[in-house]
Design brief:
alpha/beta; membrane; repeat; 44 helices; transmembrane helix; translocase; 18 strands; ABC_transporter-like_ATP-bd; 6-stranded mixed sheet
């Protein structure tokens, strides 16, 4: 034993020197010769610990040499991997999407030497800053260049391109690419993991030798004891270093793979074809990026157990066989039985997890839809019904969670009861086989069983993680294989090679590849350079689709599309990025104060951009922009405004996917085929305006005045005075000024600073039954610890020190007492685990409902200023932490203290002076903890905050992918994504590094306490202490480092996890909108009649001269009783909103009307024939956000909702802006018929839709400037309304 320890110490002492000078590779040096002499003496040793010492040494030398070479190459840049310069300087969301140059932050990890890498002391500068003040984003150093998202993305792309070139793109090739991407780092991690597993079993193998030494077998005197102590300590130090390195390496490797996969999932999203895009909703694709990628990276961690488990089991069996002989096989059988028992439990847990994820996906899908459609839900008073729907979905999830936590309680019971069960089987078998049990063999076996505890439960977890990881990897691989937009869909032609900017020959296009009726058929189009081409037609005729096929967005079945020059595209539905107005206008271009149109393209495609603006603004845009600044450019514009058609060089009339007419304006009128119907509808509208304008100029006589003028307008004037008063108050505070001051509506996410407040912990602990179950749980854990210590103490005390010593108790009594105490401890831990699971889930549910109710009752201003990603982050990730983690983390803060008290109690029985060193070491540990927490806490907060922008940016990019592609901005957005990934990786990487920094120091301090205790034990005179109890103390001391580290680790980790509770509590304090019911302000029973009269006076159509909306005034009185009022109110918002599901579900979400009534409404909305053509009829599919229907059709569906509801008050906010004039005329007639007895408030830019209203309310810059009857407003030729009428008439001159 002495020889082994001497040689081991020599080699361990020389490793740093050898690593520095490369002596392990220099066989000619004298130092190497001396080392070889020491190694040659080792085969003479025959102690049981010899081979494990040799194995651990070889592993250590191997890993250290590889690490030194790897680090040496890394600092010199000779790894063989080409470095790609990373210049991520474009933060997208906050504060700007444009390119900015950030301050370069040094990367201490990249400059660290080997000692700093082993001890993680390269983190010291970060802790120095974090201890002085809360860390800000710019205080966190940059990540190492080989951990940057751009380097990793490019490296992964090279690998996957190479594999695809050799084997094609399939699931297997993507698996191969991931393996090749991680293999080098994974091999190093595997070496550290194997070394850690080997070193961990050195201690249990030496316990029997230690007990023999304490009994009196001291052939070499005290030197043997000291060498044993050194061997114990050396193994623990090696274990600590190896463990910290493989854990850190696995997390770093997971971060690298996550960055590579996220970047490729993002880039794939920008290239998906239309058919592929419809297969995956935005929520599903975002899940690939968040949930599935996380599961894949979890596999990286657990992969190391593949190498560790066989070694751990083999060493355990070896140690047991050395001490217990054939009794070891009984222990192995019991171990395998426990593992076999866990496999079905793991399968059950896996099924439950699948159900939980399915339920969560359903809840998150509905939550996303509700948040996206919150405006329409509140306007229609559907928010409470959808709140109930979300609660019902949560109840489904909760039921699965409850089953899962109950199963987890059973699993925990087996986990903590397995050492007692295995030891009972093993010791019972030894008694039956007559194998003598001594204190040394019993204690060595108990230590081994405790080591086996992790191995037993790692296997089921390993299988579960691999199963989940494979499912996620398959999902991601399938997504990465989806069809992309065809590169050859549009042929790019050089500018000097043709006179045509756009050419389509024999074009047949369809959104669905497998179809017998293409969307566009027989398209023939040639657009010369500089031409202005107008595209018009009825709703759903294929106008937007024609632009899509020019952009290459629409699948081409036949024909050729040729484009010459760059493109710019304005979609029908405005796509606005989070940020500020300037960045949305510049869109990556440099700022120039003299510039108006920033995208200097050759071809401009406008998809009906004039529908959303008033007549004056539309005319100005058309004149100054299209026909002015862009007069020399090629322009194709879709429009429903007939007055913009005469200026076109070519007009295309679309019908049922065909270009049925083409030519100039006068030519089409003469053809008398169908174009005149569009013009005729416009002419009728113009005639109504001209008649109204003419009648206003006729002198009014007494007889021509309205009969009820004196009475009605006296009331009207009183109301007008009230409105003017409101106007003055409202105008005193200019909202636009606030927006300009802040620069953007969406502000930075709220972030707490400093420690997690006691109120947060107190609120969590008292959420269920006022915290009454907490002390019961602590008592259950305390009794478990008492029973466990008592059972081990009993075995150590009752077993003879040697086989020659007479036993103090009979074997039957020894075994019976041990079994009884073990059962007691198992029952206590079962009670504890059940209580923790119950408390955690009930608390989680209470927090969730509070947050959900606050979110659903929040005012619209909250949703306008809060990105959806922030809310989703809380209801998904943070809520999952509460569901499954927080309770256990908080519990273990207390349980680990109880555990270490038991260990110290056992150690104090034989080495009470250990308190003299344990107390100051504990103080130092807590000082480390207090020094660590401020930095780690802020890093965790920054990491969580920086995660949401990645998902939010991805969701925005998916919704505007066509615009990104049209402007050729894919590379810029790719870099923005990489920058956001790096912004998340920086705090995340330094957070996990800070954990290892603390863990390494705590482990080394624990090793110091362990070394002191061992030195004390071996220094005591022979017979001074009971050798059996001393051996028990050492058995417990072997886990002292992990227990002491566990206390600090659990406290720190819990504080990091409590951030999720803190964040959820933030959204549980959102200021609420007015109560649903205020008893003391409830209106009288004649509610409908009196309010109808008020709104008739106040209301009437509103013609706006600016884009400021007037709903604030309209909704003013509704706060008296929102729910009752909104049932009498219907609103069609400016942005048509549709829910994923069916046509019927969108028209009648609450299922209140018959199918016959729904069909009647569809016919009145001009949608009946379109829906009947679909085989599913009313069950026709509506995809996410109604993307499979045109914008005009979506507006008609929204109109159908209000026709079905038949409310007393109808508000139309640009309800027909995206439909053609003839359809608009039919809709206006329908509204007049259906709501003839109702109050209708129309917000419109089309003058003819409001000219016959009772009252006109004109807005300008957010203020009411005119309010009167149309006749009186037109009498005053200087009025704003008269000016709008004149402008409309002048613009339409010639019809």
């Amino acid at each position: 034993m002495e020889g082994v320890s001497r040689h081991l110490l020599y080699v361990l002492a020389r490793i740093p020197e050898m690593a520095h000078w490369g002596l392990l590779r220099d066989s000619d040096s004298s130092d190497s010769t001396e080392l070889q002499q020491h190694l040659q003496e080792w085969p003479e040793m025959s102690s049981p610990c010899f081979w494990m010492g040799v194995f651990a040494l070889i592993q250590l030398v191997f890993i250290m040499s590889i690490s030194v070479q790897f680090l040496h190459k890394r600092t010199r840049g000779k790894t063989g991997i080409t470095l790609i310069d990373s210049s991520i300087t474009e933060p997208l969301l906050n504060p700007s999407i444009v390119q900015q140059i950030e301050t370069k932050r040094p990367c201490p990890y990249g400059k660290a030497n080997i000692l700093q890498l082993v001890t993680f002391s390269w983190m010291n500068p970060v802790f120095a800053i974090g201890y002085k003040k809360p860390l800000e984003k710019n205080d966190v150093p940059d990540i190492y260049e080989k951990d940057s998202a751009e380097f990793l993305s490019d490296s992964f792309k090279k690998i996957i391109d190479d594999v695809e070139f050799r084997h094609g793109l399939n699931t297997k090739s993507i698996y191969t690419s991931m393996f090749l991407f991680i293999r080098r780092k994974a091999i190093i991690n595997a070496g550290f993991a194997v070394l850690c597993a080997s070193a961990s079993y050195v201690g249990p193998s030496l316990i029997n030798d230690l007990v023999k030494f304490l009994v009196g077998e001291r052939r070499y005197g005290l030197k043997t004891g000291y060498l044993l102590a050194v061997a114990f300590l050396s193994a623990k130090v090696v274990e600590t270093i190896a463990q910290r390195q493989w854990i850190f390496g696995a997390r770093q490797l997971g971060m690298r793979l996550r960055a590579a996969l996220i970047s490729h999932i993002y880039q794939k999203g920008l290239r998906l074809s239309c058919g592929s895009r419809q297969k995956h909703t935005s929520g599903e694709i975002i899940n690939y990026m968040s949930v599935d990628v996380q599961r894949i990276t979890d596999v990286i961690w657990y992969t190391n157990y593949i190498w560790m488990l066989p070694i751990q089991l083999s060493l355990a069996v070896y140690i047991l066989h050395q001490n217990l002989g054939d009794g070891a096989w009984a222990g192995l059988a019991a171990t395998l039985a426990i593992m076999a028992c866990n496999i079905p439990l793991t399968r059950m847990q896996k099924r439950l997890q699948a159900e939980i994820m399915a339920a969560k996906d359903g809840r998150m899908k509905s939550t996303t839809e509700v948040l996206r459609s919150m405006k329409i839900l509140k306007l229609q008073a559907w928010d409470m019904q959808y709140l109930q729907k979300l609660e019902a979905l949560r109840n489904v999830e909760y039921n699965w969670l409850w089953k899962s936590v109950r199963l987890s309680a059973v699993t925990t019971f087996i986990f903590w009861g397995s050492p007692a069960f295995i030891s009972s089987i093993t010791f019972g078998s030894c008694i039956l086989m007559g194998i003598p049990l001594t204190a040394g063999t019993v204690l060595s076996a108990l230590a081994t069983f405790r080591m086996l505890q992790d191995s037993i439960f790692t296997l089921p977890d390993l299988l579960s993680v691999f199963a989940q990881g494979k499912v996620s990897a398959d999902r991601v691989a399938k997504y990465l294989q989806e069809e992309e937009l065809k590169c050859d869909a549009v042929i790019e032609v050089p500018r000097n090679g043709t006179e045509y900017d756009v050419e389509i020959d024999h074009g047949i296009f369809s959104w669905e590849i497998e179809t017998t009726s293409p969307t566009l058929k027989g398209i023939e189009l040639k657009v010369k350079r500089g031409m202005k081409v107008a595209i018009c037609g009825m709703v759903g005729s294929g106008k937007s689709s024609l632009l899509s096929c020019i952009l290459g967005e629409m699948p081409k079945l036949e024909g050729t599309v040729r484009i010459s020059g760059s493109k710019a595209y304005v979609p029908q539905s405005a796509w606005i990025l989070s940020g500020n107005i300037r960045d949305n206008i510049l869109f990556g271009n440099p700022y120039d104060k003299d510039k108006s149109v920033y995208e200097d393209a050759d071809i401009y495609l406008f998809d009906d951009p004039f529908s959303a603006v008033d007549a004056h603004t539309g005319s100005q845009l058309f004149k100054d922009c299209l026909m002015g600044i862009l007069k020399d450019k090629t322009i194709l514009y879709v429009t429903h405004q007939v007055e913009f058609l005469p200026a076109a060089d070519l007009i295309l009339v679309m019908q049922h996917g065909n270009i049925v007419q083409n030519g100039r304006f006068n030519e089409l009128l003469q053809q008398n085929i169908g174009f005149e119907a569009i013009v005729g509808a416009h002419s009728q509208a113009l005639e109504s305006v001209i008649n109204a304008e003419s009648s206003s100029r006729m002198p009014l006589t007494e007889n021509s005045k309205p009969a009820d003028n004196d009475d009605e307008f006296e009331t009207e004037n009183e109301m007008d005075d009230q409105i003017q008063g409101i106007t003055k108050q409202e105008s005193a505070h200019d909202v636009s000024q606030d927006i300009n001051e802040k620069g953007r509506l969406t502000q930075d996410e709220e972030r707490e600073k400093g420690g997690i407040g006691k109120k947060v912990y107190w609120a969590y602990l008292r959420a269920v039954h006022g915290g009454a179950l907490v002390p019961v749980t602590i008592a259950a854990q305390s009794f478990f610890q008492i029973f466990q210590v008592a059972s081990n103490y009993w075995m150590a005390w009752a077993s003879p020190p040697t086989s020659a010593t007479k036993t103090t108790v009979g074997l039957g009594l020894l075994f019976s007492v041990y079994i009884t105490l073990s059962i007691g401890s198992a029952l206590c831990v079962f009670a504890r685990s059940t209580l923790v699971s119950l408390i955690g889930l009930l608390t989680s549910e209470k927090f969730f409902k509070n947050m959900l109710h606050c979110i659903m009752r929040a005012p619209m201003s909250f949703f306008d200023s809060t990105p959806t990603g922030r809310i989703l982050n809380r209801v998904s990730n943070d809520q999952s932490v509460l569901d499954l983690e927080i309770a256990n983390k908080l519990g273990w803060c207390v349980f680990s203290v109880i555990q270490i008290l038991g260990t110290i109690g056992v150690m104090s029985q034989v080495a009470w002076p250990v308190f003299a060193i344990f107390v100051p070491v504990t103080v130092v540990c807590f000082m480390y903890q207090r020094y660590y927490i401020p930095t780690a806490r802020e890093l965790a907060r920054l990491s969580q905050i920086q995660r949401a922008p990645i998902l939010h940016h991805f969701a925005e990019s998916l919704s505007g992918a066509s615009s990104i592609r049209a402007y050729g901005q894919k590379d810029r957005f790719r870099k923005s994504n990489l920058g956001l990934v790096d912004n998340h990786s920086r705090p995340w990487f330094h957070n996990i590094s800070s954990m290892e920094w603390l863990s390494f120091r705590l482990n080394m301090l624990s090793n110091f306490v362990f070394a002191f205790s061992l030195t004390l034990l071996v220094s005591l005179p022979e017979g001074f202490i009971n050798p059996s109890i001393a051996g028990l103390a050492v058995t417990y001391a072997l886990s002292l480092n992990s227990q002491l580290a566990s206390i600090i680790w659990n406290i720190c980790n819990t504080e990091n996890k409590m951030i999720s509770v803190e964040r959820i509590m933030q959204y549980s304090r959102i200021p609420s909108e007015a109560p649903l019911l205020v008893d003391y302000r409830r209106p009288p029973k004649q509610l409908a009649t009196s309010w109808n009269y008020q709104y008739k006076m106040l209301g009437g159509p509103i013609c706006r001269a600016s884009p400021i909306c007037s709903e604030k005034h309209i909704m003013y009185n509704s706060r008296k009783e929102k729910s009752g009022y909104c049932r009498t109110l219907s609103i069609i918002p400016q942005d048509p909103t549709m829910f994923e599901g069916t046509v019927r579900g969108n028209l009648d979400p609450l299922n209140e009307y018959s199918d016959q009534r729904v069909w009647e409404i569809l016919d009145k909305c001009q949608l009946g024939d379109i829906v009947r053509q679909n085989p599913k009829k009313l069950d026709s599919t509506v995809v996410e956000n109604g993307e499979n229907w045109s914008v005009g059709q979506r507006q008609l569906f929204c109109l159908g909702r209000v026709l079905l509801k038949r409310s007393n008050v109808l508000v139309l906010d640009e309800a027909t802006a995206s439909v053609d004039s003839s359809t608009d005329a039919i809709i206006q007639e329908t509204i007049s018929d259906e709501f003839r007895d109702c109050t209708v408030l129309t917000i419109a830019h089309r003058i003819h839709t409001v000219i016959d209203s009772d009252l006109i309310l004109v807005f300008s810059e957010g203020r009411i400037i005119e309010y009167d009857t149309p006749l009186k407003l037109l009498e005053n030729e200087s009025s704003e309304f008269s000016r709008l009428i004149k402008e409309y008439s002048q613009r339409s001159k010639g019809f």
